[in-house]
Design goal:
three-stranded antiparallel beta sheet, alpha/beta, 15 strands
């Protein structure tokens, strides 16, 4: 029999966060090795528990969660999300403009499938959360990666965005707060991006899943709150702010100039009904999470666990010779740079694999986030301080050995 091949739609789809290097780490764990994992923003294994009130609401409503619900989601959950959009200053959002999904990830894929024809282009940040690139490719589109400028604290390079717009460009993706860099965009930057979208008839897709994971007293502005004459699609969920990654409870909000998007919205409705509904038990967590005490504030305040671990990781990373890093203002990650003169890396995936095998530390290479040079990697600062210090000490030892082996 002939070999059974995967679809050509998957040729440009990759997700290195769970790729071949993590698979090697899994094999090593099965062989009895302890791996320090700084590769994925999965909070529960590091002792970040979902709020107890949220957990109890899911438990108590479980008997009522056995049947299908509205394809867009439970009404009380969507009503709570609507109120949240009002708090964020996003105008004219009704319950019907809100879709609940199995995590924001499902909805991102749905949004691309509903919009793109083969060959349509979407502007995606570089570096990006790789699901965005994968979702565009899977829908038959072409991701066009615009530069986020490390020298400007990872802000989008506006001239690069403008230079990459063509007559096939349909949308601009914004990840704010940013994964993998930890950048947080100013209102002035958001207005510049809106103006680019306005001049070129683009939809803005705003991934705001980390909008409460903010450090040093900073605040987040939803880009959809700054205009109403273009179309915005905003994504959020329980995974990060409420430490409930496994609940798979995310949402998508359509706002702005909905009149011009009636046909697109009809397509979203079709796709929403095709999957019947999102998982129901986790939807019972949404109203309580959004309306209750925001325990994430305790974690990100000065001295809070996340803020403390960010500071530890940044101090240790930047003390390694030849390693620099813009300090994250938000989210759970940092994106350090290796000085190419000291570390002339050709294959950053191989570098990360060697680190894993030699030091039992798991990171993700920068090219896994569609960065264009093999000179970055992402660090997740979720482990407790002692584990972070141990992991980064191992990284420093590995890089010192790597330099000696390569004569730099």
């Amino acid at each position: 029999m002939e070999a059974i091949l995967k679809s050509n739609k998957l040729l440009n789809v990759c997700y290195e966060i769970r790729g071949p290097v993590p698979e090697r780490a899994r094999q090593m764990e099965e062989d009895g090795h302890r791996i320090i994992k700084l590769n994925i923003g999965n909070l529960a294994p590091f002792g970040f528990d979902a709020p107890e009130e949220v957990v109890q609401d899911v438990i108590r409503n479980l008997p009522a969660a056995a049947g299908y619900v509205d394809s867009k989601g439970l009404f009380p959950a969507r009503k709570a999300i609507m109120h949240y959009t009002q708090e964020k200053g996003i105008a004219d959002v009704t319950v019907d403009d809100i879709y609940i999904g199995n995590g924001a990830s499902e909805l991102i894929v749905m949004a691309m499938q509903g919009l793109l024809n083969n060959g349509d282009e979407v502007l995606v940040p570089m570096p990006d959360y790789p699901l965005w690139t994968a979702a565009v490719s899977l829908a038959g589109g072409k991701p066009r990666h615009y530069l986020c400028d490390e020298a400007q604290d990872w802000m989008p390079a506006l001239d690069d965005i403008r230079a990459k717009i063509t007559d096939r460009t349909r949308a601009l993706v914004l990840i704010n707060p940013n994964n993998p860099t930890g950048a947080l965009y100013s209102d002035d930057m958001l207005r510049e991006l809106i103006e680019i979208a306005r001049q070129n008839d683009l939809i803005i897709f705003a991934d705001e899943i980390y909008d409460k994971v903010l450090y040093d007293g900073r605040t987040h502005t939803s880009i959809a709150s700054l205009a109403d004459d273009i179309l915005f699609v905003t994504f959020n969920g329980l995974s990060k702010n409420y430490r409930a990654c496994g609940y798979r409870a995310g949402w998508m909000i359509v706002s702005g100039n909905k009149k011009i998007a009636r046909d697109y919205i009809e397509g979203l409705n079709i796709l929403s009904t095709m999957r019947l509904c999102a998982n129901v038990p986790a939807q019972y967590a949404i109203q309580t999470a959004l309306g209750g005490y925001q325990s994430i504030n305790d974690l990100v305040r000065p001295g809070g666990r996340l803020a403390r671990q960010r500071d530890i990781a940044h101090d240790l990373i930047t003390s390694i010779p030849g390693v620099s890093c813009v300090k994250p203002q938000a989210a759970l990650y940092m994106f350090p740079k290796l000085d190419p003169k000291m570390y002339p890396v050709v294959d950053d995936q191989q570098l990360i694999l060697e680190l894993l095998q030699e030091e039992k530390v798991l990171l993700v290479q920068g090219t896994g986030f569609n960065w264009h040079q093999p000179d970055h990697f992402r660090v997740v600062f979720l482990p407790q301080g002692d584990d972070l210090q141990d992991a980064i000490a191992r990284l420093a030892r590995f890089l010192d050995g790597w330099r000696k082996r390569h004569g730099t």
